[in-house]
Design a protein that fits this description.
Elements: H1 3-18, E1 24-26, E2 29-32, H2 38-50, E3 55-57, E4 63-65
Antiparallel strand pairs: 1-2, 2-4, 3-4
Helix pairs in contact: 1-2
Length: 66
């Protein structure tokens, strides 16, 4: 399997983890800069963890998915 073939599936998983929020790819990380409340952040972090990613709050009020 080539890396090219993996990229669409990686982006689909980031789409699921982002939960409809717009995100920007910075290297291999998805960055969500939209300010959101703490409950939404916690749900998104749990969803990212269930998909096998690490997610943490960022200084812009959103989250970064690693």
């Amino acid at each position: 399997m080539k890396l090219k073939d993996l990229i669409p599936s990686i982006n689909e998983n980031f789409d699921k983890a982002a939960g409809g929020f717009p995100y920007k790819m910075v290297g291999s990380n998805a960055v969500i800069n939209e300010p959101m409340n703490d409950e939404t952040k916690e749900r998104m972090i749990k969803r990212a963890k269930s998909l096998g990613y690490l997610a943490k709050p960022n200084m812009a009020g959103g989250i970064t998915i690693f």
